[in-house]
Amino acid sequence: MAKTKSKNFIRSIIDNDLRTQKNGDRVVTRFPPEPNGFLHIGHAKSICLNFGIADDYNGPCHLRFDDTNPANEDTMYVDSIKEDVKWLGFDWQDKLFYSSDYFDKLYNYAIELIKMGKAYICELDVEQMREYRGTLTEAGKNSPFRDRSIEENLELFTKMANGDFEEGKYVLRAKIDMASPNLNMRDPAVYRVKNAPHHRTGDKFKIYPMYDYAHCMSDSIEGITHSLCTLEFENHRPLYDWFIDELDIECHPQQIEFARLNINYTVLSKRKLLELVETKAVNSWDDPRLPTIAGLRRRGYTPGSIKEFCSRIGIAKVDSTVDIALLEYCIREDLNKNAKRAMAILNPLKVVIENYPEDKVEYLKAKVNPEDPNTSYRELPFTREIFIDHDDFMENPPEKYFRLQPGGEVKLKNSYFIKCQEVIKDQDGNIIELRCTYDQEAFCGKAADGRKVKGTAHWVSAKYAQDVEVRLYDRLFKSENPQSFDNYLDDLNPNSLTVLHNCKIENNLGNLNSGDGFQFERTGYFCVDKDSTSEALVFNRTVSLKDSFKIKKK
Fold first, then answer.
1. Domain count, the chain
2. Do both 140 and 202 map to the same domain?
């Protein structure tokens, strides 16, 4: 039985199957991506579901690539999918499969359908086939080639397999019911000619099985007990059942549909994600603005935050749209507990502390992570010249402005109180420097005379700070529902990426690797980008500090 209590309708079905011994004690699931693009956050939901159920019921979860369309597939996608699944923390062990592993078996099964009079070779072109298919309210018409003899169908199918025909000349169709109210049952295509090399089988095959045929048959061949898929495949289930029943296959997987993931301010269609990449609307499949797992990883999301997000949204039977703020909430919650802290100044303003000795360097202590009771400390060099953020100073502030202003005083985080004595401007009137004094007796928020200062500013030493590039990512689309536009590309946010140069960061963060995450204090969560070098660090903003999502904490 399951290790954990059933919390959704799928687990209830599986629990009942185990009680009735429908599949004996077996629970076998699979995650079956097509290798025609990078995985996205919607796939993460399916990965967590399939691998999670297999783990809880002590069964295997297969990773199978449904690689039936060589024109759109690539080993690059295969490798990226493997990397994503492993990064999320799941292990298919020795259960790695491909639909192409079964091409010979699938071909022989198709021969059986022809011999049973359940499949025929059709010469209708695409437009004619669409016309003959009918509509949701009108029955389709039988193809004029539907009643070919079994011998003729076998001969033509053999010639198709030998590469004797050009693409589009012939297709093998299942002979089911052109009057069925389910359009998927109106003599669907089973095989088509495809003159394209396959990434695994090369030029061996000249025909390739259609997805609907190969998908369900691969499930059956592998002994899958519970075939979990999203709701758009609900109307395909009768067709899957037909193939397996007509061929009298011993293993008949139970297909169970659940609601796919929809998130506002984004698109979760591989076709559209590919279009974004190909039109250069984004830089690559792992662009941090994309909802791909690779993009989220590069942006600084953690496996734990994505799995927590998938856990919180749950498994339902009805489609709905999830607020992207919930995903942002999950990464903030994760990073707040686990990310190291660092001082960083994105918009530097130089401050000269006039009463601090010019050659003095004082090393102040700051917690690496105040959320960790066992945290260590890092040292911050404090010098006469420092940088604060321009946003922490205002020359003519409104009432109740508590940060630095002329004649005003703020606390420097983990350091002294400073007071602004003079504002230095360039010839265009831009503020370029502040002259301040510090109170040696006022440290870490406490003054010897007991005075209170409300404002706090973060800072770095001008002498020891490191220059870095910071990339600020915002939502890729301006509206909650980009799909509502005639062309979703019209809703692209022109400000989805802002690049800041010559930002300043403390220089004692140790050896940094791509993906290392930090909380830039009072600013947000950031991670080291893969474009970084030992001479030039690049940071991506993962998410801001502010959380707008209201949620009942566990």
1. 3
2. yes
